[in-house]
Structure to design on (205 residues):
């Protein structure tokens, strides 16, 4: 999510243990460890899966996904920002709110149903809380709609959200469509951040 980043943020960033680890291990972002920790806890991946990664740039989540689904799996990543290529990852460039971009993503799937939809999307911050929350809710709702339309039966959906207006309603909506909805706050997520991840397990018929 876009932020106003001053000197304090930069100092925290360069000294962050996960930032240092990501550089050492060749990961595209520290957020890769958020997905890794959730995936380990909830056994999100298995070899051969088809995965869609929304809001993928710079590619940390796609790196984790591609490694875990293996050569027999497929990862389709999408972002409005450019992303350098990754082995085992097909990248679609564009704004997820654009119908033509969603159609390009569907074309990349080539008729495949999806085992897991990941969404780490978040809007750039305007600094106006109500505006920012509304923009975020638009993205999480679009991600959910995509998941409902493209997941296999019993497929899973992991989405980043933030506590605030509309969060409870969105959680309830997810519960209507998935057997189980879990809230996750991985260790790699900064404690002061209001971000949480909602995991919908087992898409209902």
């Amino acid at each position: 999510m876009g932020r106003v980043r001053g000197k304090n943020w930069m100092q925290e960033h360069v000294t962050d243990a996960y930032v240092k680890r990501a550089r050492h291990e060749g990961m595209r972002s520290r957020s890769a460890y958020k997905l890794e920790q959730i995936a380990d806890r909830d056994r999100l991946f298995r070899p051969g899966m088809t995965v869609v990664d929304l809001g993928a740039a710079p590619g940390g989540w796609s790196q984790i996904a591609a490694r875990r689904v293996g050569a027999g799996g497929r990862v389709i990543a999408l972002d409005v920002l450019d992303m350098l290529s990754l082995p085992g990852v097909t990248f679609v460039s564009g704004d997820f709110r654009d119908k033509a971009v969603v159609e390009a993503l569907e074309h990349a799937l080539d008729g495949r149903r999806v085992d897991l939809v990941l969404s780490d999307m978040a809007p750039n911050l305007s600094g106006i809380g109500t505006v920012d929350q509304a923009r975020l809710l638009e993205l999480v709702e679009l991600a959910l709609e995509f998941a409902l339309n493209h997941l296999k039966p019993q497929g899973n959906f992991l989405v980043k959200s933030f506590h605030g207006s509309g969060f409870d309603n969105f959680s309830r909506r997810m519960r209507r469509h998935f057997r189980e909805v879990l809230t996750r706050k991985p260790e790699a997520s900064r404690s002061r951040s209001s971000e949480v991840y909602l995991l919908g397990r087992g898409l209902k018929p």
The first helix runs from residue 7 to 15. The domain at 7-203 is CATH 3.40.50.150 (Rossmann fold). Residues 1-5 have pLDDT under 50 and may be disordered. The beta strands are 50-54, 74-79, 89-93, 114-119, 151-162, 178-184, 195-203.
